[in-house]
Amino acid sequence: MTTALGYFLWNKVLAVMSPAVAGQVLTLTPISGFLLSTLIFGGAITIDIVGGILLIAIGLILTLRP
């Protein structure tokens, strides 16, 4: 069921934005997964996790610039 919902939402996103931008924004998946797991399970926020999030964000910003 969750896979079907994921494909449905992915198709909705592709109808709104270009596939190139949607693919780049997909790199936010690890960040949102970490944030959700921290909220649900109360995981620890360590310096290596913050560094990884920063690297992902910097890479996304650099690739989305015109």
Descriptive overview:
The structure is a single chain. This protein is an all-alpha fold. 80% of the residues lie in helices and 0% in strands. It has 4 helices and no strands. It has helices at 2-16, 19-25, 29-41, 47-64. The mean pLDDT is 88.
Mass-distribution shape: flat
Taking the sheet with the most strands, its summary is:
none
* Helix fraction by DSSP (H/I, runs of at least 4): over 70%
What's the SSE pattern?
HHHH
Radius of gyration: 14 Å
Structural class: mainly alpha
Give the uncertain stretches in residue-range form: none
- Cα-to-Cα separation, first versus last residue: 37 Å
The overall pLDDT average reads 88
Instruction: Tell me the strand percentage band.
Output: under 5%
Count of distinct strands: 0
SS field, number of helical segments: 4
Brief write-up:
The chain has 66 residues and is mainly alpha-helical. The protein is built from 4 helices and no strands.
Q: Which key phrases capture this entry?
A:
mainly alpha
Layout of SSEs?
Blueprint: H1 2-16, H2 19-25, H3 29-41, H4 47-64
